[in-house]
Amino acid sequence: MPDITFTLTDGFGSGTDQKKRISLQPAIVREDNGELVLIRPPQPFYGAPGVPQTVTGLAAGLWRVGDLDSDSDRTVLIDIPDQNGDDPIDIVPLILAELEFPENTTVQSLTQAVEVYLAGQDLLTADAAAGIFAAIDDALPTGGADGQVPVKTANGVAWQDPAAAEPIPGRAPLGNRLATLGDSVTIGGTSGGVGGVQNKGTAWPTFASILSGGRFELVRNAGVAGNTSAMMLARFDTDITPYAPDTVIVTAGTNDIQQDVPIATWKANIQAIVAKVRAIDAAPVLGAIYPSDAAVGRPAIISAWNIWLREYARAEGIPLIPFDQKANPATGGWPVGWSTDNVHPTLGNGPAELGKLVVDTLDRMLAPATIALPAWQNANQLTNGLFLTAGATKAAPTAPSRTPAVGTGSLAAGTYGYRVAARSRTGTTIASAEVTAVLSDVGQIALAWGAASGAQGYDVYRRLGTGPWYLIGQTTGAAAQTLTDIGAAGTAKNPPDVDTYNPPADWLYNSGGDFVVTTLTDPGARGSVLRMNPAGNTGTKALQHTAAACTAGETWEVVGRLRSDGRADGGIGLWCSLRNAANAQLFSARPADGLRGAFDWGVLSHRFTIPADVTQLLLIPVVTASAATDAYADFAEVDLRRIA
Hints:
Distance between the termini: 48 Å
Structural class: alpha+beta
Strand content: 25-35%
């Protein structure tokens, strides 16, 4: 096995009494998709600045070089060749080749190599890059012989030979099963659920799951309002361990600061929680303490505590989510419009932005998606989950009869056109053919039309001559209707020329008054897209699918894609209603519930066990508006399937 050499100079400083770190991690590249797979945690090596360091016993092949700057996040891949002679291999030229340096560029250290690369790629100026490297961690103890590594001991960190103790653990790829441990910001609006699996709520962990594209399955949101780090530690074995997560994101400190917990106590609790995460063979991820300006001096304390958290995370090789980077620079609290109390980011696009930050931060470490979306129609229990078949077209109502009368009413003289459309909870039919009526003087025009099967009401449109159309009246009921136009101004609106009366075949309206259901195509989704729009109304609008039979004890899964334009301020979601033989709902399982904010396509997933007395499942997409808007929610590739 070859030896390698490196020299820590430039940005690493000049003091020979301070050890510095790089890490090497063996890797392979999958032939089928080119994906990088890291084989085991990184192996750290330490040396004093300006002193050549030799590392022995490295196998030939592809290695990931890490810890090149203060974020421990920029990496380089090098291919260490087989060694035929006895001289060590200098890895600096390998790094230069990987970074594709210009000819005649002289680089004498790993740090300088990355610095020049960043400047050359216009990612950072040379001065800014140098500033990053000048901030390399100084938290390691002084002393230590060449080849020794820092290890945790009862008294802190000490230098020891690798054979005497295990090195500090490093990063590894993150698994798909995600749990989050935190306080009220973490839990958000998450509620109870079925079979030990929560209904997914409105907080950032739900968005992290959805926006990960199926690479994170949220198996438990273990946030509890008001929790300190000590409380989280005390309930770890109950709230995290039973759910067997692969990855645990821990965010603690907001309530410690609020309750004047000493920083030393908080540090010890964070370290103990990390130890518990590793003890259940899960990968720990730390979240920076959330922004808050709820009290004088709070932002400064949060900043100071987060400095230690970053140093600790880097020393332990733990990824860190920089929630504090979302702070308003002027106040240290959440951005304007995110919070009503300066503590909880429950408004606007805040939770979605935090979930996206989690995914973006961990993107390179996330394993491939394991959630399977439907690839063809009628794959499981849900027919038409790709929305490829349309609902039955509803004929337009018959054109209304017209009876003009002068001397009563306030409709001005003129020639008027009229059209009528039948209305259902999911939309309207195409409007009837236009008919005209002539009023010779100020008066009124009486209209009458026949019944349309299944209608819940009718919309009446009017225009003067060939001018713009106005919605002048709405009636209720399916029977034959009449309306007398006495001259109401109405609302400018064109009669419908697209039939949205029925939802896609196999789907039925469930509740909520008028809203529009349309299907459209989009390159981001297979099949058609189901768009649900409240059509300017308020309240919850819902569809439901025909019931699927189930038996207590079975494991089921709901999957699909979802996106929103952010205007459904009451929330959007996908519910699975669990019902008994009498069609009464006993429970509900919700892969997305009350989500708010704008986001592009994400992947929904929810797995649950059928409780006792449940015999059928109804899948129900919903959209809720608290005010009259044209908000919408889009659903695609939806499936409901039995797993076991």
